[in-house]
Design goal:
By secondary structure, the chain is mainly β. The chain contains no helices and ten strands.
């Protein structure tokens, strides 16, 4: 027995179900733009999805907020982020203490192995750091989806 379920906003999902003791579900996702199907991706059900499952933005300059680990205070548009392929540069936008246009940190965009968080790594070993972000000695953490850099 097959069922076809169509959800129009924002994707179309086609679910084929087989009724048996060992049920299987196949999910295909198609993106719709201007009523035209432009992309078709096979997906498996998501288990243990990483909460920071965001993507790296395209090359360019962006304004990011800073969240301070000690106080939890957020300063909006405090830093300019420059992304060039896997390289990233964090620049004081003049709102934080220090000089405007001062480089706060620079390195490579990498995922921390243990936490799955995006970090500003200076070398491959940073991906294995015991501590990251906040006021630790580890690399800074960045959330591209929320546009936040976490600092001490």
């Amino acid at each position: 027995m097959k069922k076809l379920i169509t959800l129009l906003i924002p994707f179309l999902f086609f679910i084929n179900c087989k009724n048996s003791k060992n049920s299987t579900i196949t999910v295909e996702k198609s993106t719709i733009t201007n009523s035209k199907k432009i992309e078709k991706v096979n997906e498996k059900p998501i288990r243990n999805k990483n909460l920071n499952d965001d993507i790296i933005p395209n090359n360019g300059e962006y304004l990011y907020s800073v969240e301070f680990a000690e106080s939890g205070m957020i300063t909006k548009n405090a830093v300019k982020i420059i992304i060039n392929n896997s390289k990233i540069k964090i620049i004081n936008n003049g709102i934080l203490s220090g000089k405007k246009d001062e480089i706060i940190d620079e390195g490579f965009i990498m995922k921390h192995k243990k936490s799955g968080e995006w970090i500003i790594a200076h070398n491959e070993k940073d991906t294995l750091s015991k501590e990251i972000g906040g006021c630790s000695d580890g690399p800074l953490v960045i959330n591209f989806k929320k546009k936040i850099l976490f600092m001490c």
